Amino acid sequence: MKIKILVSIIIQLFLSSLLFSQGKISDEWLTYFEKSNYLETPRYKETIDYFRKFEKLSPYAKLISFGKSPEGRDLFVLVVSKDKCFTPQTAKKSGKVVLLIQNGIHSGEIEGKDASMILLRDILVTKEKSHYLDNVILMVIPVFNVDGHERFNPFNRINQNGPKEMGWRVNALNLNLNRDFMKTDAPEMRAWLKLFNAWQPDMFVDCHATNGADYQYTMTYAIEKDKNVHPVLGNWVKNSFIPFFEKEVEKDGFLIAPYVWFRGDEIRKGIVDGATGPRLSNGYTAIQNKIALLLETHMLKDYKSRVFATYSALYAVIQKLNAESQNVKEIVRKAEEESVKEFVHEKKSIPLRYQISNESVPFIFKGIKYRKEPSEISGKEKIVYTDEKFELEVPLFNKVIVTDSVVAPFAYLIPSHLKEVIEILKLHGIKLHRLNKKTKFKVEKYKFDEDVTWQRRPYESRISVSAKYNSFNDEVVVPGGTYIAYSNQRAVRVLVNLLEPKAPDSFLFWGFFNSMFERKEYFEDYVMEKYASEMIENDQSLKTSFFEKVNSDSVFANDPYKRLEYFYRLSPYFDQSWNVYPIMRLNEKIELKTLKEESYF
Ligand SMILES: [Zn+2]
Q: Cys staple from 368: which of 199, 214, 287, 435, with CB 3.0 to 4.6 Å?
């Protein structure tokens, strides 16, 4: 009980210290959130107006539109730099660490926006925290999902405790931007990739509010540290960043824990903390060799606490980066360099799929007690949370194992007609070359099994595929103009995750190659009858093998179509490219004559 009172006094002191500091703030610089007694969040226009004022006031801030939403709204990022490095080139030259903070990818979860406004004011207006930007270039996206943000309503998040009204989870095309990082169907995502790949921020923070069980933590987080990032980066995250980050946020009075993802149906079975797939923001920025942090405030905490917990988390990130600017730059550079060395030159396999191992470490979970009661509504038991807190040691499963991986080829050959694939590769920062003339190659190709499974319903607008394949070697002559993607490049993990069909977010999985599985020519029975008879007549061994199959396989023997098709498939009329993946692996290292490099960045 005493501890409880002490904690609440500390929280009160912290909040009142914030209020006190706001005592010095002129009305003009109070945020909409503060003026609403911490209950409301501003609309897009008010938000952008406030961000514009930073640009007007400070020579160190520049508001840049990096694209348009489907409904025509500008996507803005505020760049804050004491050296006025407002372009990717000048930022790179400065040698300072670049931090990208993203708010409102799920625009109903908008605390990051209100926290960012106060934090930026403390840096640019009151200058209380201005010195934390001595070694950091800060980029803040006020709202990423701008169209969703303007679907403003009190009824958008049934589980969430404020703000009074808020935006909607997905964009105007009903796409969840936080599943779009690889396939990039949304115009917002294509714009984002251009921004990200041009600037190459060293660290990325994505602000959310979570759904799920009730517990004591105001802030939970996930940070990529195992297998989908290089150990050089993962070790810094584990040993240096996390201890500092957790301590700082707790110091401000907010309980913090790794993202609470139950291993089973209840907490006693433990929680898991693994590697995120690249369709999500943190999984994507991880395979781009960056430090990737996901913030998830707890939906049931009041909006004010959620905003200030986010403020506290963002502030901790900035402090850490400012203190270790050169070190962090070096870690990110090394993670990049080592990844290329290991995956390209030493041919180590690149992880594609992950699982959590059975190893665990003890973790003290701070929960809220509940009881189970029969429910008249569901007809089953319901969970009723009480006000009572509890602490329980549970296993935290945080060791990632790789369940599937691939060795990168020397290069991929990509037919030039695959325009959408080529465009998306470039958006991802992949450098491409083109053959200057027709060339003969020994390649590895993939041929898919015929039993392909499609999802019954669209997922994120796509009919995704699961299909197995075998690889085979072939000799091909490809035309001049064919694209070559060498593995020897910075974004090699992204390259293989897009082009290797078995990767969970590959082009193939997302249905970019669905037409490849369609057969387009068929035989007429009476034509095939005649042709098959001729084939048998001219080939005794074919005749033998056919009748052997008829005698040994009753299903085949009783299927007239299959019997005819047996010959069709052996005839030159059968489409040899059916079910064959058009992108080829060039495994042998060779010197190629190519045209100028093509890349966006
Ligand atoms: Zn979210």
A: 214
